[in-house]
Design brief:
Function: Tyrosine protein phosphatase which functions as a dosage-dependent inducer of mitotic progression.
Helix content: 25-40%
EC number: 3.1.3.48
CATH class of one domain: Alpha Beta
Number of strands: 7
InterPro entries: MPI_Phosphatase, Rhodanese-like_dom, Rhodanese-like_dom_sf
Organism: Patella caerulea (Rayed Mediterranean limpet)
Catalytic activity: O-phospho-L-tyrosyl-[protein] + H2O = L-tyrosyl-[protein] + phosphate
Amino acid sequence: MDEETALIGDGSTAHALPTIAGKNADLVSISHETMADVINGNYDEQIDEYTVIDCRYPYEFNGGHIKGALNLYTEQAISEFLRTQCAVETDCRRVLIFHCEFSSERGPKLLRYLRSADRKENSHRYPYLSFPEIYILEKGYKVFYENQQSLCEPCAYTPMLHKDHSADLRHFRTRSKSWTAGERKSKLRRSLMSPY
């Protein structure tokens, strides 16, 4: 990791957590061991609070997730989270850790969405960010569950492609895509109606 990427998103300080080279070169990755250490309080001196954001669909989340995780799987849910959290100004060091089943698609996509929305929300005071320190859990819930079952509730793992949830998968994929498409149409409509 070069010196620039060793700093958190606003460039103010180094990352509190040890990072690893991950599948997504533009994101800052942590291992399942580091995630377990965060949950077990081994980084309480370095960070004030952390939030685990599980980007899997609800049937996956309900079938087993990291203790204390929030299930936010749409851009709308991420926007609402950002809006409510930005309303609370704080000097404490807050860390977000995103993941999905493998941390290869949904988690990285929603992490990037939050960073972009945060940057836009705070554009008037660049480089300030409400959440400058964001990580992706490398290899996602699957590998975390295989190695840290005592930190999962319930202690289980439901894959996205589980045969008993094919109707759920269709429903949530459609729901995720329809919100994004609806939001884009709404933005286009507003921009076409704008006098500027």
